[in-house]
Queue: 4 jobs
Job 1
Amino acid sequence: MPRHVCPPWVGYLLLNPLRKWLENPVRLLGPFVRPGMTVLEPGCAMGYFTLPLARMVGPEGRVVATDIQAAMLDRLRRRAARANLADRIECRLTGADDLGADDLEGQVDFAAVIHVVHEVPDAGRFLGNLLRALRPGGRALVVEPKGHVAEADFEATREAAHTAGFAVQEFDLARRCMALLRP
Ligand SMILES: C[S@@+](CC[C@H](N)C(=O)[O-])C[C@H]1O[C@@H](n2cnc3c(N)ncnc32)[C@H](O)[C@@H]1O
C-alpha cells in the first residue's frame, strides 16, 4: 500500500536546531556508535542525524545514508561538504522497496532507523534486508514518532522485526516508540 512520504519542505523543518531539546543526536545515538564503525542510516532526509553520526564514527568510519528523494540527499551533500564531513558520508538514492545496502551484507555495525519505518511500504521486507546488512553483533535502533505512529502500528513493526529474525528489545516506550534490534 502506498504510504505518505515526508516531503522536502518537512525535511527543512527536521533540521530545526530546537529539535535537539527533544531528540539530541549524541544522547540518542552516542551509546551505540564508536569511532571506526560502519553506520547505515536509511531515510536520512537532509541529515539531522547524519552529520552527528559522521562525527561519532570519526575519520576511520563511514556513514551510508540512504533516501528515496534526491532533493533530501542533495541538501545533505551540501551540508556534509560545508561541515568537512563529505569524505565519511556516502549518500545513496534508493527505491522504496530497496534498502540500497546489498553490497554491505554482514558489514554494518549499527543502523539508525529513525522516523522512517512508517513510510516504508513493506516493513517486513525492509527489516529482512536490514538484518542481512548487519554484522553479527551489530545493532539497529528503530525510533518512530510517538503520536504520529499509533502504538498498535509500532507493535506491528516490532512484530515484523521479530518475524524477520531480530531479537527485539523495547525501551523508553513511555516517552518514545523505540526498539533496539539485534540479529
Ligand atoms: C520523517 S523523515 C525522517 C528523516 C530523518 N531520519 C530524521 O529523523 O530527521 C523520513 C525520510 O525517510 C525517507 N523514506 C521514506 N521511505 C523510504 C524508504 N523506503 N527507504 C529510504 N528512505 C525512505 C523519506 O524520503 C524521508 O526523507
Job 2
Amino acid sequence: MKVLIVYETKYGNTKKAAETMGDVIKEAGNDVTVMKVDVVESERIKDYEALVIGSPTYASSQAKSIKKFISSLDVDAGTKIVVFDTHSGDGINTGGPMRRAVKKMEKQIEKNPNLEKIMNGLQVAVKGIEGPLIDGELEKCKAFAKKIVENL
Ligand SMILES: Cc1cc2nc3c(=O)[nH]c(=O)nc-3n(C[C@H](O)[C@H](O)[C@H](O)COP(=O)(O)O)c2cc1C
C-alpha cells in the first residue's frame, strides 16, 4: 500500500517519530514516503491510499501548517488516515490528553467524509519544549506503527 507520512517539526522530535513509524511500515512491505508538510505537493496526495499525519502541540492545538493541510485535503473516498502528536510530557505546559493536537486533528478529519480514520491517534511525549523524546516513547511509536500496518 502507498502510505504518505506528513509531519511538522521545529526541534526534530515529530520528524523522528514520523521516520521511526515510516521504517516500521516500510519493513512490513508498504511503499512509504515521509515528508515535512511544507514540501508536500497537494496534487500528489491522491496517489496515496493512506495518510499518517504528525504535529507538535502548540497552545493545545495542532500546528497551523497541519491545520491548513488537513482542511485542504482533497482525497478519494476511503482514504485511510491516522494522526499523532508530540507534546511536553514532563509537567511543563501540559493540559492533559484532551488538550493536545491529536484531538484537534481528529475533529478536523471527521468533517471530511472521504477520510476513514483507521485508529485513534497517538500522543508522544517530549522533554520540555525541545525534547528529546522521553524514554520509551520511540517504542510506543514502533508499536503504534505495527498497529497501523494491521489496519491498512
Ligand atoms: C509556542 C509553543 C507552544 C507550545 N504549547 C504546548 C502545549 O500547549 N501543550 C504541550 O503539551 N506542549 C506544548 N509545546 C511543546 C511542543 O509540543 C513541543 O515543543 C513539540 O512537541 C516539539 O516537537 P518538534 O521537536 O517536532 O518541534 C509548545 C511549544 C511551543 C514552541
Job 3
Amino acid sequence: MTIKKNRSPEYYRDQIFSLTTLPTLPIIATEILRASREDNLSVSQLLPIMEKDPPLAMKVLKIANSAYYGMRTDVKSLRHAIVIIGMRELSNIAFSFSVIKELSHDIGGYNLNWKQFWKHSVACGYVAQLVVEGLEYPTQTSFYTLGLLHDIGKLVLYRIDPECYIESFELANNKRCSSFVAEKEVFGVTHSDVGMWIAERWKMTEEVINAIGYHHHPEKISDYRFKVCVSLLQIADMVCNFKSINFGTEYDSSIPQSEDGWKILQNEFKRLDGVDFESFVSGLEDELETIKKMVDLLQT
Ligand SMILES: [Fe+2]
Ligand SMILES: [Fe+2]
C-alpha cells in the first residue's frame, strides 16, 4: 500500500489504527511485559511463557552456554539457563527476541540494514536500563522495553511506504540532517509521532507512549509527569549514537550539551550537575563494553 506524501498527521494516525498489515506486539512479548510489571518476576511465571516458543528456548540455551557466561558444563535445561542468566536479563532477551522476530518479518528489499536498526534498539534498551540504575531513578517502567521500542516508528513508516521512507533516508544523508527532520519533510510526520501511535495501538502505558513520542524533543512534552522519563530515553539514545551504535545518518549523533533532555536531567539529578556529556559517557565505558557483547550475542 502506498500513501501519498505529506498527508496530515491525522491521516497517518488513522492509518496506523486501521491498517491490518501493521505489526502487532507478539503475544509472548505482551505476556512478558505483564509478568514483569508484577513486583517479583519468578521462574514459574517466565518458564511456561518461554516453553511455548521453541526457537526462543533454543536461543536462551545458546546464550547460557556462550563464553559470555563462562560455564564449564553444558547448560541443558531452561530452568538452569534462567538461574545462570538471571530473571531480568532473561525477560529482556525473551522480549527482544520475540519482538525482533515478529517485526522483522518480510521487510527485505531496498538494502536497508535492519540488523543495525535492531542493534541500535537493543543497545538503547540496555543503556537506558543502565542510566536509570546509575541515577537511582525510581520507576515501574521497563526502560529496556522503552529503549528497544523507541525508534519503532521508523520500521512502521517503512512498512507503510517503503519508497517514501528510502527517500527520507537519502534526504537525511544528502542534507546532512537528522532522520527526524528528513521524515518530517517527506512524510509530514516523524518516526516519533508514528511510534507514539503504534504504542497507543499496542495499549502500552501512558509513560511509554509519551516517552516514544517525544524522545527527540523532551522539552515539548506537555505532560510534565513524563519529562524525566523522556529525557532519560533521549540520553540513552544519544549515548548509543555517540558510540556509533546507530541506524541511519551519522548526523543523529550529536553531543547534547545544549539539548533539553540533558538540561532536564542535570536539574533533576544533583550528581549530573556540572558534568558534561562526554565525561558522563566515559564513566560508563566498562558497562558499555559489556552491553556491546550482549548485543552481539543476541544477534548471532
Ligand atoms: Fe529516534
Ligand atoms: Fe534511536
Job 4
Amino acid sequence: MRKIIHIDMDCFYAAIEERENPELRGKPVGVGGGSRRGVLTTANYEARKYGCRSAMPVFKARELCPHLILVPVRFDLYRAESARIRAIFGRFTEKIEPLSLDEAYLDVSHLHSSGAAIAREIRAQIREETGLTASAGIGPNKLIAKIASDWNKPDGQHEVRAEDVEDFMSALPVGRLWGIGPKMRGKLEAMGIRTCGELRAMDKIDLARRFGTWGLELHALARGEDDREVSIDRIRKSVSCEHTFTENILTLEALRPQLLAMIDEVREDVERRHADRVIRSLVVKMKFADFTRTTAERAHPELDAGVYAELLEEAWKRGANRPVRLLGAGVRFRDPDDGIQPELFDSAGL
Ligand SMILES: [Mg+2]
C-alpha cells in the first residue's frame, strides 16, 4: 500500500511577498502585471474574496477590486524559497516530484508513521523555517492526494484512506479529474454524468466505445485508481509549437510570418503555465521535403523574436534551399534545481 502526499503551498508568491512586507497583510494583494503582460500570477485570499484569480488580466482584477495592491513578481526569491521547502521534503523522502515551485508529490510509503502524521510534520517544519503555510492531501495514489490537498485549504490537510476512496470519489464533480476540461465536461453532462459516482456507473465497454483509450482511463479515474509513480524527473524540460504545412514552403521570407505566429503561441504557453521557469535556450526546428531535419538552438534567457529570426535563417541555410514541410519553435528550460544558485547563471551570462 502506497502513501502519497501532495503538498501545495498556500498562495505561494503572495504569501512570500506578505512575509517580506508585513504591511501587505490583511490587504488584497496581487502578484504580477509588469513584464507578464499585465496578468496576475497569484492573488492572496483577501483579493480572491473579490474574485481576483491567477491568470486574470490586471485591468479585470482592478475592476473587481479597485484597491488591489499590485506587486511585481520576483521569481528569484520564489525559487530560493522553493528550494528551501524542497530541502525539507528531502528529510523525509528521496521520491519527490515537483509540479511547480509551490507543489510537489512525495512518496513516503517507506516510512512507518501514518501519512497524516508525516504531512503534519512537514507542514510544521515549513511554517517554522519559512513562515509560510502549506496544505496537504494524503492518499494511496497521486490522484487522490492531489484532490485531497484542496479539501482543507489553506493551512490544512486531508487524508483519504484506501477504504474510503470509493466514498470520497462518489460525490466528486468529474471536472476535478485531470484531463477533463470544459469540453469533456459538457459531453459527459449531456450523458447525464456530473459526478465520479455517476461516471463509475457507466459501462467500461461503453466508455471505451465513446472515448477510446481515454474512456478506459476515465473508468479507472472515476474509481480513484491511479498507479503512476512519483517520478523525480517528470518536470517539463521544454515547450514548443510546431506546424506541418499542407504545402511545402519554398522561401525563407514565407517562413518568417509562420515563425512569428509560433513565437506568440510559445510565449502564451510559457507565461500562462511556466512563468516560474527560467528559459535556458531558444530552439528552431525544421523538417525538409526530403524528410531530413535540423535544429538550431541558442542559449538566451527570454523569448526574443530577433534571436528566433537568426535561428530560422541558420536552419534554412542548412537546408540549402530545400522546401520546408515542418517548422517548429520552442524554448528549453533550465532544470529547476539549478535555480538554487541564481548568481551562478547570472555570471555565466546565459
Ligand atoms: Mg499553491
